[in-house]
Design a protein that fits this description.
- Strands 1, 2, 3, 4, 5, 6, 7 and 8 form an eight-stranded mixed β-sheet that branches.
- The protein has 13 helices and eight strands.
- With 308 residues, it is of the alpha/beta class.
- Strand 5 (179-181) and strand 6 form a beta hairpin.
- It is globular.
Length: 308
């Protein structure tokens, strides 16, 4: 019998607000005492994964989310204005008009700026959830995935500021401007890797548990404008790219997140519940791929460290 410990990694995908489902997944894995040797995150997967890797429990992250969403800072933010324009829930006519005009103003701004949101506003949100530590000092080895807009290549952060890595990995194109970094122009990791399974493999993972929070390929939205056509084309490309990458995972968890826009943060409670439910449904498969000895006291291994 092979008693060698296997490196078990979580590959947490991107999807903006849908990333709250990761919290539910982490709650279920923690409750079942599933060992995690490495966390690799893209975009919102980097945000939630980075917080968890730093030592913050899923329950603490959940409490932080409630606190942030009820804060004056969030309620008056550009993200909240974008959410009002994309949330399908019923709101008052006044709220709809407010969201409509705020969103149009933000889109007009985007024609002259690299992003709708100010770097300061977005950094403030990152700082609220992520402690000011180095990646090398996280309790669980952590990697954040980004994309270099100049070379078109994937960039994986394995050292340096945890906050900066998460900020760059979460820079949704069009919403957050890219960041100049060591001669590169870095943006959201989801541009080329929405669920970073291959990055986890390259970082030494033997077993990869992937969490896919991408929107489904089927949509009932009308495709009758240039923006709608571009968005649809992007969704189709992302779907097929993600499907190819997920083929390399040992287990894929797919929370039922629907087609929520990346900005709809007010659905956090439901998204967390869906993540927990989806992980519970896959728990038998997860335990099958994890060796018995690993689950019951094997010495933890460390993922190899590779500088960005």
């Amino acid at each position: 019998m092979n008693w060698t410990h296997k490196c078990i990694a979580l590959a947490l995908g991107g999807g903006g607000a849908r990333g709250f489902a990761h919290i539910g997944v982490l709650k279920a894995l923690s409750r079942e005492k599933i060992p995690v040797d490495l966390i690799v995150g893209t975009s919102s997967g980097a945000l939630i994964g980075g917080a968890y890797a730093s030592g913050i429990t899923p329950q603490e992250v959940e409490l932080k989310i409630g606190e942030y969403l009820n804060s004056k800072e969030y309620q008056s933010s550009a993200v909240r204005a974008i959410e009002r324009a994309h949330d399908g829930e019923r709101v008052s006519l006044t709220r709809k008009l407010q969201g409509f005009f705020q969103n149009k103003f933000l889109l007009l701004q985007a024609m002259f700026k690299p992003g709708i949101l100010s770097p300061e506003e977005f950094q403030s949100m990152i700082d609220f959830f992520i402690p000011d530590i180095m990646i090398q000092d996280t309790a669980i080895p952590f990697r954040a995935v980004a994309t270099d807009l100049i070379s078109g290549e994937q960039v994986v952060f394995s050292e340096g500021s945890l906050r900066e890595a998460v900020m760059i990995s979460s820079s949704v194109p069009g919403a957050i401007g890219p960041r100049q970094f060591r001669g590169m122009l870095l943006s959201d990791g989801g541009i080329i890797s929405l669920v970073p399974v291959n990055a986890a493999r390259k970082e030494g993972a033997d077993i990869v548990i992937a969490v896919d929070i991408t929107r489904g390929i089927f949509s009932d939205e009308e495709i009758d404008t240039a923006q709608g056509i571009c968005d649809r084309a992007s969704d189709i490309a992302a779907y097929h790219l993600t499907r190819h990458e997920l083929a390399a995972a040992d287990v894929v968890i797919r929370p039922r997140v629907g087609n929520l826009h990346w900005s709809v943060f007010s659905h956090a409670e439901n998204l967390i519940a869906e993540g927990e439910k989806a992980a519970e449904e896959k728990m038998r498969d997860i335990k099958k791929v994890i060796p018995f000895f690993t689950r019951f006291g094997a010495k933890r291994s460390k993922a190899r460290s590779v500088a960005v």
